[in-house]
Amino acid sequence: MTTLRPSRGEAEYPRLLEIWRSAVEATHHFLAPADVEYYATRVPVYFPQVDVTVAEVDGILAGFSGIAEGKLEMLFVHDDFRGRGVGSALLRAALDRFPGLTLDVNEQNPRAVGFYLHHGFEVVGRQETDSDGRPFPLLELTRA
């Protein structure tokens, strides 16, 4: 069973980074190892800037989401827990709080794009680079 709760803050950041790394290594095949390391240094900086919700499965932190100003800035599920409804639970909770939720997703991550389309989002725009200006296109999504 998946349970959701607010993050307990900095004490959980190391586990959240482990979840992020597991998810990225399993799904972001377009990133070189150096890119993963670059982002791994940036992700912890973002945690205090977003409202983080964590998902636990049998007491184990399995995934998390981060929202700022009605925008889903991050949603990651540890690879060991993918396909078990953790991401869907996090997304439903985000939508309950912010029905007009928006998000950006890496265009080169077809599973993530498909996940959001399956949950009723539609592509409304595209950016050639990510928020760091790196050559990883983002699709802008909103609920249909």
Describe the model:
It is a single chain. With 144 residues, this protein is of the alpha+beta class. It is built from four helices and seven strands; from the N terminus they run βααβββαβαββ. It is globular and about 40 Å long. The mean pLDDT is 96. It comes from Amycolatopsis rubida.
Largest sheet, spatial ordering of strands: 1-2-3-4-5-7-6
The major β-sheet equals: 7 strands, mixed
The geometry reads as: globular
- Our estimate of the beta-strand percent is 25-35%
**Mean pLDDT figure:** 96
Low-pLDDT segments, ≥5 res: none
Class of secondary structure makeup: alpha+beta
The level of helicity is 25-40%
- Give the N-to-C terminal Cα separation: 29 Å
Give the number of DSSP strands. 7
Would you list the SSEs in sequence order as H and E?
Answer: EHHEEEHEHEE
Organism: Amycolatopsis rubida
InterPro entries: Acyl_CoA_acyltransferase, GNAT_dom
Keywords: Acyltransferase, Transferase
Protein name: GNAT family N-acetyltransferase
Helix/strand layout:
Layout: E1 2-6, H1 13-27, H2 33-46, E2 51-57, E3 60-68, E4 71-77, H3 86-97, E5 102-106, H4 110-118, E6 121-127, E7 138-143
Parallel strand pairs: 4-5
Antiparallel strand pairs: 1-2, 2-3, 3-4, 5-7, 6-7
Helix pairs in contact: 1-2
Organism: Amycolatopsis rubida
Keywords: Acyltransferase, Transferase
Domain N-acetyltransferase: 2-144
